[in-house]
Specification:
With 228 residues, the chain is an alpha/beta fold. The protein has 9 helices and 8 strands. This is Alpha/beta hydrolase.
């Protein structure tokens, strides 16, 4: 199965290198995506541009792909399910939940000079970054790509209720499946509250398991793809 891999904020497609290698050995075809504004040098990219890149990859896939997304990009995977519900076998959401219709995509941190830079480790201290040592943190910072404001403040538009029919797995790194279910039950993830086929997978890691637990993450995604 083709498995599209979408990194979250500040990341390009290379963040999936070790996961992709492990997935190939498990018999799947990983397709890491580098999004406009996150590795192609563009500072004018928009959320629509990023979604167009994801949809192009869905359309080019052999058969129905599984769309995997990390953190803020979980919304991109969900937008793809909204635009191509009949073309996607499954959505896997790692460490994040889809943003609701009408809300900004990822307006989380200060914007300056038209971009949202990596804000440093302060907002991520605790479970998010506990498994990143000093060297890994320096490497992350050195490679972090400032995300254009046209992406972060782009407005999410969802329209096709068939997205709720697309099977979904929530991969839970810095939180547990029980905590994820509690968030959904409390109304903090309204899109997933309406998903008709949702599973959870536990992963003992911080917020960036593709960096710290690539083999384990690959096995979880391969199992999800097999179930699809």
């Amino acid at each position: 199965m083709d498995i599209l891999l979408i990194g979250g904020l500040w990341l390009n497609g290379s963040v999936w290198d070790r996961v992709a290698s492990a997935m190939e050995s498990l018999g799947h075809r990983p397709v890491p995506l580098t999004l406009p504004g996150q590795g192609d040098g563009s500072v004018s990219a928009t959320l629509d541009d990023q979604l167009a890149t994801v949809l192009a990859a869905v359309d080019a896939a052999a058969g129905k792909p599984m769309v995997v997304a990390h953190s803020a990009a979980c919304t991109l995977a969900w937008l793809a399910a909204d635009r191509r519900p009949e073309r996607i076998a499954k959505v896997a959401l790692i460490g994040g939940f889809p943003t609701a219709d009408g809300q900004p995509y990822a307006d989380f941190f200060e914007v300056s000079d038209g971009v949202m830079r990596f804000p440093g480790w302060g907002p991520f201290e605790g479970p998010d970054a506990a498994d990143l040592d000093d060297g890994a943190r320096r490497e992350f910072e050195a490679g972090a790509i400032s995300v254009p404001v046209g992406v972060t403040r782009g407005v999410v538009r969802l329209a096709d209720e068939r997205r709720f029919d697309v099977p979904t797995v929530v991969v839970c790194p810095e939180f547990t499946p029980e905590q994820a279910q509690e968030l959904i039950n409390a109304g903090d993830a309204p899109e997933l509250a309406r998903a008709k086929h949702i599973d959870f997978a536990d992963l003992d890691s911080g917020h960036w398991p593709m960096l710290t637990r690539p083999a384990e993450l690959a096995r979880i995604l391969a199992a999800a793809a097999g179930a699809a």
